[in-house]
Design goal:
Blueprint: E1 6-7, E2 10-11, E3 32-39, E4 42-45, H1 46-50, E5 55-57, E6 71-77, H2 79-83, E7 89-94, E8 101-103, E9 106-107, E10 110-117, E11 120-127, E12 136-144, E13 150-159
Parallel strand pairs: 6-13
Antiparallel strand pairs: 1-2, 3-4, 3-7, 5-6, 7-11, 8-12, 9-10, 10-11, 12-13
């Protein structure tokens, strides 16, 4: 008599009437971003200060060459660089991976790098000249896994200060 529940990768017919199952729907965990600046030695989300984040899920037309449909747009004002005590804007990476890399990490006086602070991963956007920042539209930074897969695309727009 066969006493194994699994036989040849199938449930033994003897036990099939005792097996309960339920379909489980799972969601893919995708990378997302939260915009932060440095104040009093800590990083604070912009949403806590102005009521909404500057970085949102992209809902426009398909972007050729994006390599992913996980796309975010960040609309920030140049004053964020001077408001942040270290002159940098941070993008907290949620649901990131180990050994991520950035592509297109330098553009028109700006540079981006990955860092880890207090156990959280961030893209750090900085500039050498915060006094006369050039306006930027549609600058793209790709976040990739260590094997080159595009995990997310961050589109950065830097506008004039509203006042």
């Amino acid at each position: 008599m066969e006493k194994n529940i699994i036989v040849d990768d199938y449930i033994n017919p003897r036990y099939q009437s005792y097996v309960l199952g339920a379909p489980v729907q799972t969601e893919d965990v995708v990378m997302s971003f939260t915009t932060c600046i440095a104040m009093d030695g800590e990083l604070f989300p912009i949403a806590n200060m102005i009521g909404e984040d500057c970085t949102t899920k992209y809902d426009g037309e398909e972007i050729e060459g994006a390599g992913t449909d996980n796309i975010y747009t960040s609309n920030i004002f140049s004053m964020l660089f001077s408001t942040s005590e270290d002159g940098k804007v941070y993008y907290e990476i949620k649901n990131g991976e180990d050994r991520m890399i950035l592509e297109n990490d330098e553009f028109d006086g700006f540079s981006a790098e990955l860092t880890n602070k207090a156990g959280k991963d961030y893209i750090v956007l900085s500039t050498a000249n915060a006094e006369s920042l050039p306006l930027q539209q549609g600058k793209q930074i790709k976040v990739k896994s260590s094997n080159g897969e595009v995990l997310a695309l961050l589109i950065i727009n830097i506008g004039e200060n509203p006042f």
